[in-house]
Amino acid sequence: MESLSQRELDQLRRISTTGAREAERALRQMTGLEMRLDVSRVQTLAFPDVPGLLGGDEAQVVGIHLRVYGECRANILLALPPRAALSVLALLFPPGLKGLDEMGEMEISGLMEMGNIVTCAYLNAMSAALGMSLIPSVPMLANDMAGAVVDVLLIELGQRGDAALVVQTEISSAPHLRGQILMMPDPASVPRILEALREHPVV
Amino acid sequence: MGEFLVREAPARLAIYGLGSCVAIFIYETERRFAALAHVLLPAHAQGMPRGPAGKYADTAVAAILGDILELGGSRERLVAKVAGGAHMFAATPSAERETLGERNIRAALESLGRNGVEIAGMDIGGSYGRTIVADAATGMLRITSLKRELKQI
Questions:
Q1: Contact between B37 and B64 (Cβ < 8 Å)
Q2: Residue A67: beta bridge partners?
Q3: Which of A75, A187, B21, B96 is the most exposed place for a label (fewest CB within 10 A)?
Q4: Which residue range is the domain that position A171 belongs to?
Q5: Alpha helix locations (H) across A82-189?
Q6: Residues of chain A with C-beta less than 8 angstroms from the C-beta of B53
């Protein structure tokens, strides 16, 4: 994988933070709750270390996954701990559920739709900042162990290497509503992103 | 992930949170050598950088057999078990003919077949993650998941 300079990492972090701000705004509008947004982190991780970002291999997460097509290929995952997913469901479909195993088609669609809105807000802002078209796929949902949820994303990167460039942002709201956005650009798209960063420098 | 280990009894080998990747377990029944690979892909693609042997179904099986034979194991006493290869995001219909998980399973079974290793157990497919703990003393795999009962193969 092409290694990124400190300045490039910094720019990618800022662009992701801009995206996350839009995602946070969308989530705030949907839920009516005040949200806290952490500055994005950009790091290159060996595959086995990626599930650690979500609490470890066996930690249960609800993951909403979208593929990104267009001038840059990437995978984007919105990961919610079970309590956060239940909080979102209680807001979308009051009074909500007792446990995630009670989820039916309506709840799954609700979470996918929420993931779709949040990640599209993120992508739109990135797209504007980079001057690139970024086209999301339909959302896909999995509710399982973090290792199992992210391994599909890693398999897609696996043919080209053993490490993933991960752009991570946390959005949270008291008390239990918090989620991570993980964006993993395809290695072949990283040079494109760097070029776009040179053409559209973030100050 | 992408690696394999070979250990002699008593020992336990584990993979936590396996999704569409596939676990290939090979056991030498008399010397009680246990090998577990956490395979990501069916095979190395031409023109791409080559990863460790344990990353691909074809090279993982060959590398494990090489190690077991080198330790003094016999080809005649090998059995294999295969687990994983799930389709994790099954809540959304997929247009793909074969999922990543299915491709990994097929490659693992083909590779074991080519090498003449008998398949003694499988727990494959579905749309849920698995944790696998292999016991070199018995050659058994304990498979746990969030949504299913404990399974032993």
A1: yes
A2: A75
A3: B96
A4: 6-198
A5: 82-92, 105-130, 146-158
A6: none
Contact B86, B15 (CB under 8 A): no
Summarize pLDDT for B54-106 with one digit per residue, the tens. Answer: 999 999 999 999 999 999 999 999 999 999 999 999 866 666 778 999 999 99
To the nearest whole Å, the CA of A109 is away from the closest chain B CA by 9
Q: What are the CB-based long-range contacts (under 8 Å, 24+) for A191-195?
A: A191/A2, A192/A71, A192/A72, A192/A132, A193/A12, A193/A72, A193/A130, A193/A132, A194/A2, A194/A4, A194/A8
Q: Is residue A1 part of a domain?
A: no
User: Which positions in chain B touch A148 (Cβ < 8 Å)?
Assistant: 17-20, 86, 88, 128-130
Alpha helices in chain B (DSSP H): 57-70, 100-114
pLDDT of A200: 76
| Complex ipTM value | 0.92
End-to-end CA distance of chain B: 21
Q: What are phi and psi of B26, to 5 degrees?
A: -125, 135
Q: Where are the domains of chain B?
A: 4-152
Flag if A108 and B91 touch (Cβ within 8 Å). yes
CB contact under 8 A, A148 and B100: no
Residue A5 identity: S
Q: Name the residue among A88, A137, A117 with its Cα closest to residue A23.
A: A117
For the B4-152 domain, the top CATH level (class) is alpha beta
Confirm whether A203 is domain-assigned: no
- The number of distinct structural domains making up chain A is 1
Between positions 3 and 42 of A, the ones with CB within 8 A of B are: none
| B-chain residue closest to A142, CA distance | B89
What pTM was computed for the model? 0.93
